[in-house]
Amino acid sequence: MVDKSRRNFIIGMAGLGALAAAGWGVAGWSLSRVSGTKVTSATPAFGQGVKIIFVGHWGSENVFGNVVERGYDDACALTGANCIKMYRPKTDADLQEIISNLQVAINQTPDVLITTDIYTAVQPYLHQASQEGIIVILTNVNAPTQADFEYTGAISFIGQNLVTAGYTQAQALSKYFPSNSHVVIIDEGPGQVWAQQRNQGIEEFLKQYGCTWDVIESSFDLSQVTSQMTAYLEAHPDTKAILSNGYGGAVAMDVFPKLGIQPGQIPVATFDITPQVLNAIIAGYVTLTTDQQPYLQGD
């Protein structure tokens, strides 16, 4: 049987964390599930005795995931919570390993499960966790619809509105390329909810802007992105812009010089602030990037 008073206390703390994130502009959907719950002020070790498990979808090569994990570790130390390590797949977004990690986490009966709705296929496990009295918090990748969110039983989401982010990215980059031109989208997460939603926003703007576009299905393996970008630009020299739904677009810094393309000649937009992206911005190869506060998503 679930200890409802303990559960409500922990939900209050979760609500506090989500509200704090909202102050930084990263809170999502709604906190309707925590309405009427007394929120407890944050004090050192206020999370003592609360067992928390974080199941992420980022592989070891994913620098964004490394920052999220650092935020999680720091928050655990700050609050004194009994945090289990962040479970991450060996390969980025490996569905079967993510599901396996969720099952391992649920079997440990934590008070709180923090995770991402990276694929709709994980939702039955989130639903199971919430039905068993585990508090589920979504971060980074929200459920694609409100109905999906309700099904998971999650109490809140902390992260970016991904459709809006994609639209805004394309709109911002449009200052640097003409309407009715041809562009390319680099999809670094084919089949993953976050990538689908960002692409939806990007394509919505491009349609309004009268553009044509192709989508390159890629990954977070920067060597793969480099090879694909090179081949595409060689075959499509009329490409007027590159929109990456992850940080892979930063490889333009390596690709462009080999093709005789000058910095800024083809505008490039990416997501996230990584060392590669920052270096490419400084060198003039990436025009803009959109960050989403990964540290706070773990914190």
UniProtKB/TrEMBL annotation:
Broad class of where this protein is predominantly found: other
Residues in the signal sequence: none
Domain Periplasmic binding protein: 54-298
GO terms of molecular function: carbohydrate binding
Subcellular location: Cell envelope
Alphabetical list of Gene3D superfamilies matching this protein: 3.40.50.2300
Alphabetical list of Pfam families matching this protein: Peripla_BP_4 (PF13407)
Family: Belongs to the bacterial solute-binding protein 2 family.
Protein name per the record: Putative ABC transporter, periplasmic solute-binding protein
